[in-house]
């Protein structure tokens, strides 16, 4: 039950962070947004260090650094994906990919899927097809580029979660600190290389910082949940985060979706729920 509640909290925080990050990336180049979000996230984890502790072993440094590289890619790909939109279609696609990869890793590590999981995985694949199959002038159909970015973002998120899970369970918040330090360095280096292509638009500072803080909270809750439960189950419950993103996108941006895509979103919710039941 503790793992379930932590994973649901992580899901909610991720959903809100993604909405704010995607919205902020519409106002300026995505790297300008990430340049604020990543350090803000690191600041939160440093503040948590004294109360939660941290042990920087070689394994922790290695897995934390790997999660940081994946996190930098996830930040950039996800915020760019949500900036292109529509959020309420692309966010679930990303979530399904980010859920399925950890499930595979969990199975390889000895975890087992019940009947619900065996039904949930094919449903997840069907949901991806339905969600991306909108048509008509009034539909919210994502472009091919947006779909590819969504798939890449999902893979990056999955790798980040997998790498965090592999870190020693007695390492405290050290994997998060190492990971966010690396992701911040990668982001700043990329921004320096691409400086002339970033444009002159100023980022939404408060929005980007809030996204980074929420992402840090989500990472912490996921790490705690994964340490007290199975990776496959925790990952798919965390992957329910599009619910928050979609709700905010519909209420704030008034985004609309095609009826067939609505069926796809419902299928995605059922698929993720079935996976969580395992």
Q: Can you give a write-up of this model?
A:
The chain has helices spanning 2-24, 30-52, 58-84, 87-108, 115-131, 144-166, 174-193, 205-228, 231-238, 242-252, 259-276. Helix content is 78%, strand content 0%. The chain is built from eleven helices and no strands. By secondary structure, the chain is mainly alpha-helical. The two termini are 14 Å apart. Mean pLDDT is 81; it is low at 135-139. The relative contact order is 0.26. The longest helix has 27 residues, at 58-84.
Characterize this entry briefly.
The chain has 278 residues and is mainly α. It has helices spanning 2-24, 30-52, 58-84, 87-108, 115-131, 144-166, 174-193, 205-228, 231-238, 242-252, 259-276. Helices cover 78% and strands 0% of the residues.
Spell out the key features of this protein.
single chain, 278 residues, mainly alpha, 78% helix
- The topology string of helices and strands comes to HHHHHHHHHHH
Q: What is the mean predicted local confidence, pLDDT?
A: 81
Structural class from helices and strands? mainly alpha
Question: For the CA atoms, what is the radius of gyration?
Answer: 18 Å
Q: Compute the separation of the termini in Å.
A: 14 Å
